[in-house]
Amino acid sequence: MATPAATINRVQPGPAEERRDIVQAARDVFAREGWTHTTVEEIAARAGVAPETVEHYFRDRERLLLSVVLESAAQVAAALTIAAEEHLVEVTDLERDLAALGRAWLAPLTDFPEHFAIIRHIGAEIDRLPAGLLEMWQSAGPQQARRQLGRRLEHLAELGLLDITDADHAAERFIQLVTGGVVQRSFHGACPLPDFETDTLVTRGVADFIRLFSPVAPR
Q1: Which domain does 116 fall in, by range?
Q2: How many CB atoms lie within 10 A of CB 164?
Q3: 207 — phi, psi (to 5°)?
Q4: Mean pLDDT of the chain
Q5: Would you say the pTM of this structure is higher than 0.70?
């Protein structure tokens, strides 16, 4: 005979919570298996729901991957925007503060491991991805973060600390010079570098960036 405790109805998750659980499960599975080898059934099992429930929220696997990538990219872009605002709001030592920003810009590699695992899979499966995925990911993530960084660098130019005529280009160069080496050598965070190597790459990149955009002294 069932005990009273066993007969109590469990509280069922609402649509928002159920969708969130499916997206999280899909993020985990895509990060581990990649796009090509992931099935709706596997995602459903991870989320603890029926495959039909997944299809209720997402018409097909392509829509689910798109939702996962866009939501994850937006989270990373938001974190990078906060980093730029916090480290460049009041600059007292340009080289030191830009280096601090560079290290903060790399934090998402460890803070969002599933996102960057998916990015690594995207690089390997680029010829089999749903149409338009790359463009939408770039717009929601990297381009958005770069625009926000460009605005902060433009402010430094207004203060006379940098010589910038194209803020987006300056932001792109900062990312390439200051963080690009760490991203490439660590394979987007899959093989984290020792702290001293990260600091060396960031410091050298900042020095190169400042030389490139240093204000021209008046003659």
Answers
A1: 66-213
A2: 20
A3: -60, -45
A4: 90
A5: yes
Q: Over 50: is that where the pLDDT of 7 sits?
A: no
Angle made by CA atoms 133, 137, 138, in degrees to the nearest 5 = 120
Residues 6+ apart with CB under 8 A from 71: 23
> What number of helices (H) and strands (E) belong to the chain?
13, 0
Beta carbons of 209 and 178 less than 8 angstroms apart = yes
Q: Is residue 103 in some structural domain?
A: yes
What's residue 6's pLDDT?
42
33 domain-assigned? no
How many separate domains does the chain show?
Answer: 1
Maximum pairwise Cα distance, the chain: 94
| Contact predicate 115/76, CB 8 Å | yes
Q: What's the pLDDT band for 60 if we cut at 50, 70, 90?
A: confident
For the chain, the first-to-last Cα distance in angstroms comes to 94
Buried-state track 78-93, b at ≥16 Cβ within 10 A, e below 16: ebbbebbeebbeebee
**Residue count (the chain):** 219
Task: Say if residues 22 and 63 touch (Cβ distance below 8 Å).
Answer: no
> Is 176 contained in some domain?
yes
